[in-house]
């Protein structure tokens, strides 16, 4: 039966395995015959993405409010493209989304989670959020963080706490300290049941 695609978001702190797992998920779904595309936020190729990249690599200082709004704009840029794909029956596997937006900025001094959620309100609402749950200590022990601006264990600990406050009914918390294969299997099982169930459902609006 035809129908719309599912919007699947993968979230987690830095080094939780998101990018590897997104790739494995997409190839498994393709081999099952599903129409699926992978997306990644921030998309560093667009104009907003280049500004975000310069900020993350410390080549450009920006006010934290501006940074927050750039990340949000970087998602809104893809909104119509995402809806078009979903309506065509293409499922989307999205590496980071608005939850990262709220969890990272609200880890900064003076930003509440509530304020941080505002600019992303109304984006396509995910059908499933797979949260790769790993403590900041475990993440750090995986070969260390890189040089980017948020890659510090104390900051990541706050981000982790913030993520857990964003949990809603479409979230599945996956223990990301398991083997890569077990994490993959758990993610795939969840995705398979969601893809079958969304076909007749409308796409909602996030946080509205
Ligand atoms: P990544 O390319 O997935 O490693 O993401 C780059 C960094 O930016 C990473 O530390 C997570 C952070 N990040 C991702 N999305 C957002 C967002 O919307 N807002 C903020 N402040 N940070 C974000
Ligand atoms: Na990173
Ligand atoms: Na804060």
Q: What ligand species are in this complex? A: 2'-deoxyguanosine-5'-monophosphate, sodium ion
Q: Strand order within the widest sheet?
A: 2-3-1-4-5
What is the number of strand segments?
Answer: 5
Number of H- or I-type helical stretches: 9
Per the principal axes of the C-alpha atoms, what is the gross shape?
globular
Whole-angstrom Rg: 16 Å
Largest sheet: 5 strands, parallel
Helicity range: 40-55%
- Give me the oligomer status: single chain
β content, as a range? Answer: 5-15%
What's the rounded overall pLDDT mean? 97
Describe, in plain words, how this protein is organized in 3D.
The chain is of the alpha/beta class. The chain has helices at residues 18-31, 47-56, 64-76, 79-87, 98-105, 113-117, 136-141, 153-165, 180-197, and strands at 7-11, 36-40, 91-95, 128-133, 171-175. It has a five-stranded parallel β-sheet, sandwiched between helices. The radius of gyration is 16 Å and the shape is globular. The model has no long low-confidence stretch (mean pLDDT 97). It binds 2'-deoxyguanosine-5'-monophosphate (DGP) and sodium ion (2 copies). One sodium ion is lined by residues 106, 108-109, 111. Its EC number is 2.7.4.9. This is dTMP kinase. Pathway: Pyrimidine metabolism; dTTP biosynthesis.
What's a quick, concise take on this entry?
The chain contains nine helices and five strands. It is α/β, with parallel strands linked by helices and 208 residues long. The radius of gyration is 16 Å and the shape is globular.
